[in-house]
Amino acid sequence: MDGTFGPRLSLKQRYVFLLCIAVGGIVFYKFWRVDPKVKRMSRVEGLRANSSQFTLEGKPFRILGGSIHYFRVPRAYWKDRLLKLKACGLNTLTTYVPWNLHEPERGVFNFEDELDIEAYLSLAASLGLWVILRPGPYICAEWDLGGLPSWLLRDENMKLRTTYPGFKASVEIFFDQLIKKIVPYQYSKGGPIIAVQVENEYGSYAADNEYMPFVKETLLSRGITELLMTSDGDGLRKHGGVNGALKTFNFQRLNMDRVKYLDEVQPQKPKMVMEYWTGWFDLWGNLHHVFPAEDMTSVVEEILKQDMSINLYMFHGGTNFGFMNGALAVDLPVPLPMVTSYDYDAPLSEAGNYTPKYHLLRTVFSQYHTQPLPDLPPLRQSKEYQPVVVHQRLSLWDSLIFTDEPSSSTTPVNMENLPVNNNNGQSYGYTLYETTITSGGALNSNNNVKDRALVFVDKHFVGVLDDDSQEVTVPDGEEGRTLSLLVENFGRVNYGKTLDKQRKGLVGDIELNKKNLSDFTIYCLDMKPGFIDSLGGSDHWVQPADKPPSGPGFFQATLHVDGPPEDTFIKLPGWNKGVVFINGKNLGRYWSRGPQQTLYLPGPWLHTGENQVTVFEEQNTDGRIQFTTVPDLGKTVEVQ
User: Fold this and answer.
1) CA–CA distance from 146 to each of 258, 518, 576 (Å)?
2) pLDDT above 90 for 207
3) Of 84, 98, 127, 483, which has the fewest CB atoms closer than 10 Å, so is most exposed?
4) What is the spatial distance between Cα 155 and Cα 560, in angstroms, rounded to a whole number?
5) Contacts for 355-362 with beta carbons within 8 Å, 24 or more apart?
6) Which of 490, 518, 546 is the last residue of a domain?
7) Which of the residue ranges 13-22, 42-51, 287-296 has the most confident prediction, judged by mean pLDDT?
8) Beta-sheet strands, E only, within 367-497
9) Pick the catalytic residue: 275, 350, 434, 617?
10) E strands, 477-623, in order
């Protein structure tokens, strides 16, 4: 006996003892290490769907979720929006991942600043929120091409959302980059991600029976281990789902037939509404959609009474900044583009303010918590800045020296196939096509203008070509005049069967007096930040005359901010149609036809002192830029 440590061990016993300690240490490190990225201990019992209720950490769990897309919200406001989500009684954040922003050119990836998805996931974890990640590759989301990058369309045989080799290879390359960033934030690694969605609403597309198994395998083979889900609306019964993933459904009005269907195909499985539509999106030329708060709340209450989990789409919509809005083609004679605002009539407004829906939902969700909900975070201040006056103008044609080298082509070339952006084509914005004409007459688009063209002869405006108006009369004149067509990509369709047909610009021949025009000079005007910044170096800026200046061109004004910058809304009465840039950031499109009449300007995008306001206007201006604290999204109509 050893008086201090008990019986003396033999050499063999000591060896076995030390071996057990070593093995135990390895097991402890593997399963209980702290991930430095998320500061949370690893766990092994994540979200499970093995009975009629979800379980998390081995205990019954109901998902009370809300969608906030990091790419639609200024990064400076991420925390504000997530705290408000949590204070409403929600425990889970859901977000899509936009492939077209993260890989703007083939093989060129961006996960920084507003696109730092790791920072977004880490923030959610630090606030005690779980995450359901919806990485696509297709996301819909009323986003250009449903989140797919336009350079895919350079392949004339491309078949999107299928196992077409060119599409499969591109998905795998993107997922190689994306998923390795996601894996450390899974529940099993100590992170907030408790579930991952396989594609999005494929039951309504269903072009390839092998596609969903392919997407599922790309996730699993790259390290996704959490619960897999699918979500479907109208396509749920037809082709929705994939083996090994929990089916969920999307709707606005509760349909018990769909609930019954899920019970039949997934007996003894939890039911979840992945998208409960709290409002709706808006289209240019239509009205602003609203969904009455009381109607919404009554459906939410019924969903919860049915023991279902729920995700509010959207909880906070945000903004389609830049040129990123999608377009709607379903049940319409021609596609109609989405507006810039993605307010969505959601519980939290575009600027992050509480609405009646928010307060009603907070009361409902409080009943599903044993502890009081967090206090409401304070509202952000907004300010009505004094109007500013345009002090200089640069014509469209004088700006062309700052574009990429123009292309020359015998026949028109669509945006996506232009030899620009490292041969990735042009994704967004405007394209200018110029050629020489020898006479006037009937200019016919043959429906080859996508989506809208302003027509000029020697820089004088003569008409508009679009889906509704396919012919313009060109006035007679001297030979050798320049015909210019300024073509705008108004947003690619984001949902439906026409994704493969979303090439923009001039997609075929244009006729003058029934003869095809030829020999084009083509300018890419995608208006990226570098281009907007470079305009300041032009010596062609002029002071406007006494009367309001006209477009097309760029118009500059200076906004002076005293003290800390605050949120505001820009309004442009007297202007027609164009795009607004603040300190080089693209706020999005405006159009006098509405419904939207103001543009959201986040305070963090301003700075104390002088701020440069640049407006690209296609035709008419008022010469003044105004500000307001009250958004104007247009006359309303209830969602049907």
Assistant:
1) 25, 33, 28
2) yes
3) 127
4) 47
5) 355/293, 356/293, 357/278, 357/293, 357/296, 357/297, 358/84, 358/88, 360/293, 360/294, 360/296, 360/297, 361/88, 361/89, 361/297, 361/300, 361/312, 362/87, 362/88, 362/89
6) 518
7) 287-296
8) 388-389, 392-395, 407-409, 430-437, 441-444, 449-450, 452-457, 460-466, 471-474, 481-488
9) 275
10) 481-488, 505-506, 511-512, 515-516, 520-525, 553-561, 568-571, 577-582, 585-591, 598-601, 609-617
Active site residue 275: yes
Q: Which residues of 194-226 are buried (b: 16+ CB within 10 A; e: fewer)?
A: bbbbbbbbbbbbebbeebbebbbebbeeeebbb
* Tokens 């809208």, residue located: 452
Find the helix packing angle between 165-182 and 117-126, rounded to 10°: 40
Supply the angle between the helices 356-366 and 293-305 in degrees, to the nearest 10.
20
What tokens were used for 77? 């406001």
Query: Is residue 55 in a domain?
Result: no
Quick one: how far is CA 465 from the chain centroid? Answer: 28
Q: How many domains does the chain have?
A: 3
- CA-to-CA distance for 258 and 256, rounded, in angstroms? 5
Under 8 Å between Cβ of 224 and 191: no
pTM, rounded to two decimals: 0.93
Residue 316 DSSP one-character state = E
CATH number at residue 204: 3.20.20.80
Q: Say whether both 146 and 253 belong to one domain.
A: yes
549-558 per-position pLDDT tens digit: 777 999 999 9
Q: Give yes or no: residues 459 and 554 share one domain.
A: no
CB atoms within 10 A of CB 629: 14
Tokens at 493, concatenated: 């369709």
Active site residue 478: no
How far apart CA 429 and CA 446 sit, in angstroms, is 22
Say whether 34 sits in a helix, a strand or coil: strand
Catalytic annotation, pick one of 114, 201, 434, 488 = 201
Q: Tens digits of per-residue pLDDT, 518-573?
A: 999 999 999 999 999 999 889 999 998 766 677 799 999 999 999 999 999 999 99
Asked if 601 and 613 count as a contact pair (C-beta separation under 8 A), the reply is no
In this prediction, residues 373-381 reach a mean pLDDT of 96
Q: How many residues are there in the chain?
A: 640
Q: Please give the residue range of the domain that contains residue 449.
A: 411-518
Cα 97 to Cα 111, 119, 141, 414, 471, distances in angstroms: 11, 14, 10, 27, 40
